[in-house]
Amino acid sequence: MKQRILIVGAGFAGMWSALSAARLLDQHNHNETEITVLAPQAELRIRPRFYEPNVHNMAAPLGELFDAVGVTFIKGSAEEIDVAAKQVAYRDANGVLASLAYDRLVLASGSKVWRPNLPGLEHAFDVDQIEEAVRLEQHINDLRKLPASPARNTLVVAGGGFTGIETATEMPARLRAALGADADVRVIVVDRGSKIGGAMGDGPQQLVAEASAELGVEWRLNSGVASVDADGVTLADGQRIEAKTVVWTVGVRASSLAEQVPGERDGQGRLHVDRNLKVLGQADVFATGDVAYAQVDDIGNYALMTCQHAIALGRSAGNNVAASLLGVEPIPYSQVKYVTCLDLGAWGAVFTEGWQREVKFVRDEGKRIKTEINSIWIYPPKADRAEALAAADPLIPVVA
């Protein structure tokens, strides 16, 4: 009877886990282990691009790729993890409850934007999941049907972190595309920080401020959103902003499935793992991507909830879960090189290197790199067995 590696999730970490596990099994001519991916859809959703227009196109099919490397895909949503019984219960495509047994589990179920119990937050959009990003795009396009007013022409972004900045700097162009090139639009970022773009560090922060000024993006600093309604937001200090569009980008948390695996978790709900990405205290469970609190180097840096880290985490988790079944040495996860590429709309982009975010490229050159990342580097390999398996080598450096 074949053993099973069960991977929950088909995002960046889940997809690369499957390819990397298949790669190592192939290298050892091992065909007694089945690799199964359980996810709601056989597609890689290009989440880092959801702030852009035409978001409905930002999903890459995975069916042919999985077929090419011998990975079994099961369409369903995981609901319960029973570590003691080594089973995962899920709802299939017809809503029927079923279960899958495993010999090794790789949890790659990702993360979601954190939505606190805030009055009226149901009125806010987000760019976290493709369905929500599509809903936001339709809403922006439908604004033209409303009578002209300051509220119609105003968009508020709650949160001035990476996602908030990319969303805000893209929105002046998106609003004018919907309302007319001469429309008097306003984009306002509400952030608890004391500096524009302060979350990005000193180097990028000054460039975020420059881009915001050039694009007309306003910032309300040292403040937060107290409530949302259909016509705008009320801030914590009592200020009122009339706006027909509010986008929530404040923080993310690991998938709630991580709570079902016994183990230590960080403040974002991520499971603590060892350098081979095995959950601490668990013999047969690995965690990767946004559900893993993983050390990336020997000086104490930890992986962030980014596509850049998820790709490398996935390659490592897949290799090491297969190694644990084969009885061969794992390859400890390491991701010393860290870069960021922050899209700043029509202004351009900022490319930085290192954990101190040293600025290397800006404006058009930064935008060129960002476009290449978003349109090429983060997409799946071709559905060619040899090419896909070669791309899943955990020792390949990742820059995305």
UniProtKB/TrEMBL annotation:
Every FAD/NAD(P)-binding domain range: 4-312
Domain of life: Bacteria
SUPFAM superfamilies named in the record: FAD/NAD(P)-binding domain
Gene3D superfamilies: 3.50.50.100
Keywords carried by this UniProt record: FAD, Flavoprotein, NAD, Oxidoreductase, Signal
Family note: Belongs to the NADH dehydrogenase family.
Protein name from the UniProt record: NAD(P)/FAD-dependent oxidoreductase
